[in-house]
């Protein structure tokens, strides 16, 4: 039972198709990064780019842009309506350097009230409802006190709304501490996705976290400069060998114009076009691929009635 909330409304979990669990269709980090490449803001472009994903069998996309990151709820709705892509939107707060100024001033309870209002009433004055709390961030090698407060606010929001939680670990760090924090606040690890774990080549750690019940996101496929896809293949097959295929989700985390096909980047199709065949070549079977791309997203994203 339960449902998955897309930008066009609730759907039955079994109707969600192969899904990228950590992406951005619209984002604006250009102010802080002083780099216009980190702004995605055009609906026509997004529609053309996601067509490359859909041609390869992609059906769903979790859009993790949240408060302070240039989220565009109505633009996401337009892309979903025009392309048929199953888009799941987010609410939450990213890492400290991108927090809106009010985050430091308010209590965890007040921040939770703000997030619950978005879940219940819609995003930024639209009827678009978020389907996940994401991408909840921590800094590199540390959790700033405001980030810890946001994690408490998100746990409170989760308990009040039933939305799953997906995190941002800067360069893959602090995942264990994030899980400790959320579990300590009573969140079932089965509803937690620990982000960017492919940026930390540490299979032992991933196995430990997955055995506690959390999903491990290998979600930066194609970012060869950060970590080669060959390492992702090794980590994923390592998890599968340990019988943890039900704790792995996949994505690319496209955030830049230069990531898009039209600008010579790998585009939203890269994972299905390149990484999945590489996994098959490494011996990964269809059942495990379906688990990572379909079954796990359905299970994690399902909001209990
Ligand atoms: Zn991130």
Structure explained in plain terms:
The structure is a single chain. The mean pLDDT is 97. By secondary structure, the protein is an alpha/beta fold. Helix 6 (145-161) links the parallel strand 9 and strand 10 (164-169). Strands 8-9-10-11-12-13 form a 6-stranded parallel sheet. A 3-stranded parallel sheet has the order 3-6-7. Helices cover 40% and strands 15% of the residues. The N and C termini lie close together (7 Å). It contains 11 helices and 13 strands. The chain has helices at residues 30-33, 43-55, 73-83, 102-105, 108-121, 145-161, 175-184, 203-211, 229-241, 270-281, 286-301, and strands spanning 4-6, 9-11, 19-23, 27-28, 39-40, 60-63, 86-88, 90-91, 132-138, 164-169, 192-194, 215-218, 248-250. It has one domain (4-301): TIM Barrel, CATH 3.20.20.140. Zinc ion is lined by residues 135, 168, 195-196, 253.
Sum this structure up briefly.
The protein has 305 residues and is of the alpha/beta class. The protein contains 11 helices and 13 strands. The chain binds zinc ion.
